[in-house]
Amino acid sequence: MDTERFIDELMNDSKHPVHNRAHPLHKESVKALDEMMQRLDAMRNEWLSKS
What we know:
This protein is mostly helical and about 50 residues long. The protein has a domain at about 20-50. The chain is built from two helices and no strands. The protein has helices at about 1-10, 25-50. The mean pLDDT is about 95.
């Protein structure tokens, strides 16, 4: 899945703001990642409930 690849690349990118608390975009990056993970969980749960 493209989203899984994106998250894997993001987590392996040590220079991304999500890994640097001092970066001005750190909080926004963490929030965006959290929202994406919540949406993916919701999508997985929707898919599982249809099975």
